[in-house]
Specification:
CATH topology of the largest domain: Rossmann fold
Largest sheet: 5 strands, parallel
Distance between the termini: 74 Å
Number of strands: 7
Low-confidence stretches: 418-422
Oligomer: single chain
Helix content: 40-55%
CATH superfamily of the largest domain: P-loop containing nucleotide triphosphate hydrolases
CATH architecture of the largest domain: 3-Layer(aba) Sandwich
Length: 422
C-alpha cells in the first residue's frame, strides 16, 4: 500500500503544496539533497521511493544501523558508474543520525558534486546529530505526525483497493477507533495491525473486523479512551489530582493509560509544567525544570522513548512537597488590579533617565539596594493604596519553609506594615 506518486502521499500538506521544494523534488524538477526529520511511520521512506521513481532514477537504500564506511563508498562508486551511463541515483539513508562523523564525511563530496540525490531520514534533530557541512548543503524538511484523519484515509484505501484487501473485509466503528489509537500516527503500524486483524477474521471465517478481533491481532487491550470526550477529561483530571495528592503509583497508572490510548504526549507534558508551578511551586522549584526538560525531550526524541522522560517528571511531581502559594499569590495580585487597587508608582521608583524627570521629583530619594545592609533597602515599593499588601505567603512545606523564614526577615528589613482593614 506504499504510495506510488506524490499525490497518493497522505499528510505533510505543508511540504507538498504546488511548487514546494518537496513536490519539485518528487517530480524530478530539482536535484537537491534533503534531510527528512520526523517521527516513525510518517512517510520518510515513501517520499524517497516516490522521488526515485521520477526521472527513472535508481533507488538505493542504506541503513545507518548496518552500513559502514565501506558500504557507503561502494554505493557511491556504483552511483558514479550509473551516472556515467546517464542514470541518476537517489540514495536513501535511514536513521542517518546513527552515522559517525567519518561516515557523514564520506557523503559530503557526493552531495556537493550532486553525484547522488541524498535523502536522509532521521527521528532526531539533525542540528545535533549531523555535521554542519553536510546539513548546510541540504534542505531540512520537518515532517509532522499523521493525524487520525490521515491514518483513516490509509485504512480505507487498504480495505478497498485491489492491492490491499480488495473489499473482502469490513471494519466496524469500534475496531476503526482502536486501530487509530494503536497506530499512534504511524502508518506502517496501522496497516500492519489491519493486516493481522484481517488474517484473524479470515481464520474465523468472518468478514467483519470488530474490536475484539483487533485486540487479539494487536495482542494488547483496547484502552477505552475518547480523546475528545468524557474519558479524556476524566483521566487527565484523575492524573492531576493523583499527583497533587502525592500518589506516585496512581500518577504512573494514569500516565500509562493515556500513553497507551494514544494521547498526545505534548498535552501530558504541558499539564505537568502547569502542575509544577500550581501545586508545587517554591516548595520544590527544581520540579518545574524537570517538567520543562521532559517537554523538550518529547519534542526532540518523541515516543516511545519520551515515555521515560514523562515518567521521571510524573514521579518528581508526585514525590515533591506541595504548595499552592504561587498560584494564590499571583491570583490575589490580579484580583487587586482588577478591583482597581492600582495606584501610582512611588516617585522614588519612577524613571529618572529623561530630561526634566528630576523636576517632577522622579527618582528623588531612591535607595540603591546594593548599597544597603544585607542588600535590602528599606523604602516603599508598592503604591500607597497597596502598602502592606501581602500576596505570596509561603507554606511550611519543603523548600518553602526556608522561603517563609527568609520572607519574614525581608519584611522586617523592608519595614513593611500590614495592609489596613477596609
Amino acid at each position: 500500500m506504499r504510495p506510488r506518486t506524490v499525490d497518493e502521499i497522505v499528510g505533510q500538506d505543508h511540504l507538498l503544496a504546488t511548487g514546494s521544494p518537496l513536490r519539485r523534488l518528487a517530480e524530478g524538477r530539482t536535484a537537491m539533497s534533503v534531510f527528512l526529520w520526523g517521527p516513525p511511520g510518517v512517510g520518510k521512506t515513501t517520499i524517497a521511493a516516490v522521488v526515485s521513481a521520477s526521472g527513472q532514477r535508481r533507488f538505493v537504500e542504506l541503513s545507518a544501523v548496518t552500513a559502514g564506511v565501506k558500504e557507503v563508498r561502494a554505493a557511491l562508486a556504483e552511483a558514479q558508474r550509473e551516472l556515467a551511463r546517464g542514470t541518476g541515483t537517489v540514495l536513501f539513508v535511514d536513521e542517518v543520525h546513527r552515522f559517525s562523523k567519518a561516515q557523514q564525511d564520506v557523503l559530503l563530496p557526493a552531495v556537493e558534486n550532486r553525484l547522488v540525490t541524498l535523502i536522509a531520514a532521521t527521528t532526531e534533530n539533525p542540528s545535533f546529530s549531523v555535521i554542519s557541512p553536510l546539513l548546510s548543503r541540504s534542505l531540512l524538511l520537518t515532517l509532522k505526525s499523521l493525524t487520525d484523519a490521515d491514518i483513516g484515509t490509509l485504512l480505507d484505501r487498504a480495505l478497498t483497493e485491489e492491492r490491499g484487501l480488495a473489499g473482502a473485509f469490513e471494519l466496524d466503528g469500534e475496531a476503526r477507533s482502536d486501530l487509530l489509537r494503536f497506530a499512534g500516527g504511524d502508518a506502517r503500524r496501522a496497516l500492519t495491525y489491519l493486516e493481522e486483524a484481517a488474517a484473524g477474521a479470515s481464520a474465523q471465517g468472518i468478514t467483519l473486523i470488530d474490536g475484539t478481533i483487533v485486540s487479539a491481532a494487536v495482542d494488547k487491550a483496547a484502552v477505552r479512551y475518547d480523546r475528545d470526550g468524557d474519558q479524556h477529561y476524566d483521566v487527565i483530571s484523575a492524573f492531576i489530582k493523583s499527583l497533587r495528592g502525592s500518589d506516585v503509583q496512581a500518577g504512573l497508572h494514569y500516565l500509562a493509560r493515556m500513553m497507551e490510548a494514544g494521547e498526545d504526549p505534548r498535552f501530558i507534558a504541558r499539564r505537568l509544567i502547569i502542575l509544577a508551578s500550581e501545586d508545587i511551586g517554591m516548595a520544590a522549584p527544581s520540579v518545574l525544570q524537570t517538567c520543562v526538560a521532559a517537554a523538550q525531550a518529547v519534542a526532540l526524541i518523541g515516543m516511545p522513548e519520551a515515555r521515560i522522560n514523562l515518567a521521571q517528571a510524573v514521579i518528581a511531581c508526585a514525590m515533591a512537597p506541595k504548595s499552592n502559594a504561587v498560584v494564590k499569590a499571583v491570583d490575589a495580585a490580579i484580583a487587586d488590579v482588577r478591583a482597581g487597587l492600582i495606584g501610582t508608582v512611588p516617585p522614588a521608583l519612577r524613571d529618572a533617565h529623561y530630561p526634566g524627570a528630576k523636576q517632577h521629583g522622579h527618582g528623588q530619594g531612591y535607595l540603591y539596594a546594593h548599597d544597603a545592609a544585607h542588600g535590602v533597602a528599606s523604602q516603599q515599593y508598592l503604591p500607597d493604596e497597596l502598602a502592606g499588601a501581602r500576596y505570596y505567603q509561603p507554606t511550611e512545606h519543603g523548600n518553602e519553609a526556608a522561603m517563609a523564614e527568609r520572607l519574614r526577615m525581608l519584611e522586617e528589613l523592608l519595614g513593611r506594615r500590614e495592609r489596613k482593614a477596609e
